[in-house]
Design goal:
With 452 residues, the chain is α+β, with helices and mostly antiparallel strands. Helices cover 40% and strands 24% of the residues.
Length: 452
């Protein structure tokens, strides 16, 4: 019986990849459980499982007493001496228990417990095995397709490819061969659960390692990866050996290497980019196929502004903004794209001297100029003296003083478009109070420009 038990269990262990040491421990615990159920205790029992010989030995240790009160732990001197005549009171007597003495019902129950323990051991083996394989690409067959997941058979184990880890535009059928990366292994009430992925960026990394030997050997390094599964991806590569073209090696002769990866990912577009430690250079490359004219870096906020020629702005942004978003993920900078024309206009505004920044102008003069639509000193000078004099409340002397003030901020201020000031006739118009103002009053107004 011993041999049959051990052989049967050993065969199960081989089929389910359970180590012999673990199996021996399971058998030992199984018999201890049987002993406890039959005798009420297992404290004075020893069990030895010999997997090589296929034997299970059970020993019951009893104390030799004159009068037995507990037959489980005690034996009379008379009965002990029948086996070993030299024994005396107080000695220990070791009795060998035949496993068949436990009875059919107890053995049947033990078999059920054994199966349960083997299943638990098998789950532990699977969990340990797949935990060590996280990040590895597996190949399996599609076994079942559900709304939320695809179940894949891998090495006698059923793994899950959740919808969130699938490439959205891929379609599989039952029996199809599928490759994916082991993303996570968890323990649940149902046992170990293995989650695989085809959408994870690491799946793309592993495919590059398979197709590009230089990456696997460490000659070329994949610095960063950004990916929108099924649509587009960007990969930053770098080689310490200047003799090796990192991008060329990844693409392969006539694109054979990159095409193998693209085909595996259902024609996902992949941009392979030379990595650079200089943020400006790397961002310029990351926005490919667009070619930025200028990249402005804000290190404090980890952001960047890329100035793009007007005819390439759509290339820089990409379909649904994907190109810009992928470039941001790849570089680690939040990238904003700006048209060249808009950027130049903004620069002109920033470089302009605003009227509000000129303290010598009185509030009255400033308000009138702003009300007339002038914001910067350049706008006033470009308009010319004649135009300013045509505004309500501005006379010769006031305009002269304004030009004198603005002239202090610029090296050159053009003469009046209509000629020297003395050729302009003094105007008489009503001020804001409705009273007429003359050149004399206007002189006082000009003086107030400076005083205020």
């Amino acid at each position: 019986m011993n041999i049959n038990i051990v052989e049967a269990v050993t065969q199960i262990a081989k089929e389910r990849n359970i180590q012999r040491e673990v199996l021996g421990e399971i058998l030992e615990n199984l018999f201890l459980s049987m002993i406890k159920r039959k005798y009420g205790t297992s404290d004075n029992f020893d069990i030895f499982v010999n997997m090589d010989k296929g034997e299970v030995e059970i020993y019951q240790v009893k104390s030799i007493v004159k009068e037995v009160t507990d037959p489980v732990t005690e034996i009379s001197l008379e009965n002990a001496q029948r086996v070993e005549p030299d024994l005396e009171l107080g000695d220990e007597f070791v009795e060998i228990i035949d496993p068949s003495s436990f009875g059919r019902r107890l053995i049947t129950s033990a078999k059920q417990g054994l199966n349960q323990k083997i299943r638990e051991a098998e789950k532990e083996v699977i969990f340990a095995e797949f935990s060590d394989r996280v990040g590895e690409i597996i190949v399996g067959d599609v076994r079942q397709i559900n709304r939320e997941e695809i179940l894949v058979s891998v090495d006698r184990m059923e793994v899950s490819l959740p919808k969130s880890e699938q490439i959205y535009n891929e379609r599989f059928h039952r029996g199809d061969s599928i490759r994916a990366i082991i993303k996570a292994v968890t323990q649940s009430s149902r046992g170990p659960e293995v989650i695989v992925s085809r959408a994870d960026p690491q799946f793309l990394v592993r495919l590059f390692e398979i197709e590009v030997p230089e990456i696997y050997d460490g000659i070329i390094e994949l610095k960063r990866v950004a990916r929108f599964p099924g649509d587009r991806a960007k990969v930053g590569v770098y080689s310490n050996d200047k003799r090796i073209d990192a991008v060329g090696a990844c693409v392969g002769l006539k694109g054979v290497r990159i095409q193998a990866i693209v085909k595996e990912l259902n024609n996902e577009k992949i941009d392979v980019i030379n990595w650079s430690s200089e943020p400006q250079i790397f961002i310029q490359r990351a926005l490919s196929p667009a070619k930025p004219l200028k990249v402005l870096i804000d290190e404090e906020n980890k952001s960047a502004t890329a100035v793009i020629s007007d005819d390439q702005i759509s290339l820089a942004i990409g379909k649904g903004g994907q190109n810009r978003q992928l470039a941001s993920i790849l570089t680690g900078y939040e990238i904003t794209t700006v048209k060249e024309s808009e950027w130049l206009l903004e620069q002109q505004k920033e470089e302009s001297l605003m009227l509000t920044d000129i303290p010598e102008l009185s509030k009255n003069v400033l308000d009138k100029l702003v009300s007339a639509g002038f914001e910067s000193a350049e706008e006033v000078l470009d308009a010319g003296r004649k135009t300013i004099m045509e505004l309500k409340g501005f006379g010769d002397k006031t305009v002269e003083k304004i030009w004198e003030i603005l002239g202090s901020y610029y090296e050159e201020v053009e003469e009046a478009e209509t000629g020297p000031m003395d050729t302009l006739e003094p105007d008489i118009e009503k001020n804001e109070t409705g009273l007429e103002t003359s050149e004399e009053n206007d002189t006082e107004s000009a003086e107030r420009v400076l005083e205020e």
